[in-house]
Amino acid sequence: MSHNRDGHTDGDEYDEDLQSLDIDGDDGEDVAAVEEIDFQGSAKPPKRPRRTMGAAATAVVTVLVALVVVALGAGAWWMWRFHWRSVDVNVDGEMVATRADTTIARFLDDHDDFGRARGRLLSLKGKVLDKDGGEPVAVSVNGAAVPAADYGTTTIADAETMTVTPGKDITEAHTSETRTKRYGTDINLNNGPIQVVTQQGEDGQEEVWIGKRSKEEVVHKEIKPAKKLTVQSFAPQPAGKKVIALTFDDGPSQYTGPILDILRQKKVKATFFDLGEEALAYPELERRMVEEGHQVASHSVSHPYMPDMSRDDLRKEILTGFADLEQASGTKTRVLRAPYGAFVVQQWKDAADIVDMNVLWSIDTLDWKRPGTKAIHDEVLKNAYNGAIALMHDGGGDRTQDIEALPGIIDDLRKQGYSFVTIDELCAMGGVPKPAQGAE
């Protein structure tokens, strides 16, 4: 064996190498020892063979690459077509350039709506609340209208022509209420001495709109029409007849009996407008009037001036007067002669539901002045005509002149061809309409 520089022989190195192999069966240490063998770089693992792509795989890759190229090209075309491209649009005859992705809303905003006015917001009564608060300008693209709600999402990429028209005014939003409509009046007291309620007033209903912004109120529609309180006046003149109505106020009194005696003797019917307090004081005279065919009507309770009365006091006076006459005579009436003839528009408004008729006169004898028997007689004869109503009194003072004048009045009127009627009879003969009675 040869010796090396360290004094060891080559055999010694061989023995040491054999020992390091540990071939006694200890697997774990053997593996470790084997892993550490280097053979000083003379031992190398074999190289793996290089794999090559098959024809099918190559085709797939080629297709994928082609698709990517196509997609990129299509995307670029799409971006150009719908975004980057410049579009010339004919807007009502004027060519306007913009990008393809410009929305209608932006297009309008950029060009101040092309000078077209937006609609206004109006109140219920037509007042301008907001000059730009109505509908926006209207747009048609290529002849097709575009809803205003789509202005912000619709582009003009495909627009060739555009028409822009002014926006429309709109009316403010509102709430709605159903309300009572008070009835009006149609009261005409100038056509004669007999005033009659021909239609009772009746409230109606209407739908009222209230503007949410302006708070204005307007009647939108009539749900139920109101009916006017209608009072008409008449001067009945029965055709083909010659009639006159004798009337007596302020009774009954001590003078009423003699007047009733004359009327019975002459077979004449008259109308008595009696005071309630006097009727209760002379109930036997009230009953006699009715029994002998005369008409009994009211002259109030105590002869007040009715225009000075409140509504409540007026109604109480009238209703009490009717009740007093019914208690005294057993007869109901809704016919009135207001004291002094003072029953005008306001009194009708206050009491039309409880009064059928107010009766004035066409001949005033002025007997309350005690002008003398002849003066009373002559006043009636001088002013008599077909349908006349003569005013005299059987109470409220000394009525001896009326008693003295009455027989000659009756006789001389008869000589002229007159017959005598009550107010109810005159109305029936003269075509006066039946009163429209109220609910009271």
TrEMBL record:
Stored CDD domains: CE4_NodB_like_6s_7s
PROSITE patterns: NODB
GO molecular function: hydrolase activity, acting on carbon-nitrogen (but not peptide) bonds; metal ion binding
TM regions (residue ranges): 54-80
Domain NodB homology: 242-421
Cited Pfam families: Polysacc_deac_1 (PF01522)
Compositional bias segments (type: Basic and acidic residues): 1-11
Region ranges (Disordered): 1-26
InterPro entries: Glyco_hydro/deAcase_b/a-brl, NODB_dom, Polysacc_deacetylase_ArnD
Protein's name in the database: Polysaccharide deacetylase
